[in-house]
Amino acid sequence: MSVILKRQLSEDEKEVVLKRFGRVCFATGHEIPVGETVQFDHIKAFASGGATEMSNIAPMCGKHNAEKGALPLEDFRIRLELEDFFASGDKLTLRDLLKYLKTRKAIASFGEAVAVKNEGSTVTLQSPDKTYSHIVYSCPTTGWKYFYATLDVEVLDSDDEKDSTMSLQPRYLISDRVFDLYRHFQEHPVLQPSIGRVVDGHVRLFDGQHKVAALLLNGRRAFECKIYLTSNLRLLNDTNIAAHDKFAQARFFSSIMVLKLGSLFGADFEEYKSLEDGQPKSEEGFLEYLKKKDLTLTGGETRERFRDYLYKSVLEAPDNRLAALVSASNRGTREKPITIDLLRKSLFSSFLYREPTSDNMTTDAYKRDHESQNVVSLMNMFYDEALLLWDPKAPAGDQDRTRLERIFASKSMMAWAELLRDAVVGKLDLIDEEERIRPFYRKLSEEDVARVRATVRRLLQWGRWEAPATDQIGSVLSDSKSAVKKWFKDNGLNAGYLMGAPS
After folding, report:
1. Neighbours of 68 (CB within 10 A)
2. What interhelical angle do 73-86 and 209-217 show, nearest 10?
3. H/E segment holding residue 306
4. What are the φ/ψ torsions at residue 437 (nearest 5 degrees)?
5. Which residue ranges make up each domain of the chain?
6. pLDDT value, residue 3
7. In the chain, at which end, N or C, are there fewer CB atoms within 10 A of the end residue's CB?
8. Domain 88-244 class in CATH
9. pTM above the 0.85 mark?
C-alpha cells in the first residue's frame, strides 16, 4: 500500500525515496554532494492530478529546489531541459528537438523511411518495425490525396530544408510557446492534428511542430496527423504560409518568417536570373515573372517577400558581426537583444532601398550587392563601437547596460535611425532625390565609410545616453516613435549634431 504524505518525511521515508532515485537531484540528475542537505518535493503538483503519496516525491538539491518556485518538479525539470536545448541556437525546429531527444536517449529514432503503397481508397505505410493502413481522402478543391493517422515518432520528421529540397516548415520553435503548450497538454486534449506530407519515402510535418514538441515533452510518442500523399508544392507552400500569416488567429511569428520567405524567394530569384529569354534582367522584371508564375500571390505579398529576401541577404552575410545578437523570434532576449522586426523598422527601412529597381542586373548600374554590404558595414559599426560591450549577465543598474538599453530600445532605435539617415545623406553630399532615398545603393569609398562611421560615433557619444536613472530619457523612450524623435531633436540629437555641429 502507498504511503500517504500528510506531514514532513521521516528519516525512514527519506531513505525510501533516496533508495528509489539515488542521491541525485531530480531536476538535472546531478549528484548531491555529501554534506549538502537533500530536499524533497512533489514530482507532479496536486492541481495537475499528482498523488499525495510517497511515489510522487523526489529528492532535490537546495539550489534547484529554491529556483523552481511554485513549479512542480517535473515541470521544472522540463523547463531546465528546454533551456539547455534552446541554448544550442535560436533557429531551432522540431527536427533539432528530435535530434536532441535522441542524443539524450529519450527517443530511439525518428524520421525513418517508409514504403508507401496507395491502392485505391487505402494507403499503406511500412516502416522497419510497423505497418500503417488508412483510408485515403481527396480534396474537393485541388484533388490532392491525403489520409489521417496516428503515427509513431520513429517515422516522423520536420519539413526542413534537406538535400537541397524545398521545405515547408515556416517558422522556428519558440521556447515559451513550447513550455506553455507542454503544461496545457497535461490536462487538455489536442483539438487539431499536425499536418505533413510524404517526401521521397519520409513523412515530414510542416504544421503543428510546437504541438508535437510539447507532446514529446509530456512523454507522448505517437501523434495524430493529416498527411498529404500528393500536392502541388508551390500551392501547398503558399497555403501554409497564408495559414500562418493573414489567416492566423495570432500572428506571433512575423520576424521569424523573414528568413524563411527570403530563402524561398531567393531560389526563385536565381531561377529567374538564369533564364535565357533575351530579356534584360531586373528586380522589377523578376516580380513580374513571379506574378505570372504564381497567380495566388498579390502584388503586395510579392513585394513583401522581396523585402524579406533583402533582409536575409544582410542578416546571413558571413561578415555580419551584429547578426550574432539578433534574435530569430519576435522578442529580444538577454543574449540576443535585437530583433529582426526592429531592424526592419529602423536600419533596414532607413538604409535599404526596399522597392524593386529597374536597373539591369548585368550592368554596373545595378548596385544591390554594394548596398547589402554597406548595410552590413553599418551594422558592424554599431557592434564594434557599442554592442561589443553587451553583457547578458550584467545586473540591472549597470552603467554600460543602461546606456546600451537606451540606445537600442525599440522606439529609440526607430527614431534615431531616421536622424542618422539624414546625417549620412548630408555627409555623402547626396543632392538628387533618387540618391537621397537610396543612400547606400552605391559603392562607398574608404572616405565615405569613414564619414558614416563618424556619424555613428557621434550618435553613440551623445551625452544623454549616460544620464542618471532619474533623467527624463527613461520615460520618453517608451513613447511613440514620433514623440521620441521630436524629443531627440529638442534635446540636441539631430542631423546637424550627427554631422559634427556642437551639441
Report:
1. 19
2. 130
3. helix 299-315
4. -85, -5
5. 11-84, 88-244, 319-498
6. 41
7. N
8. alpha beta
9. no
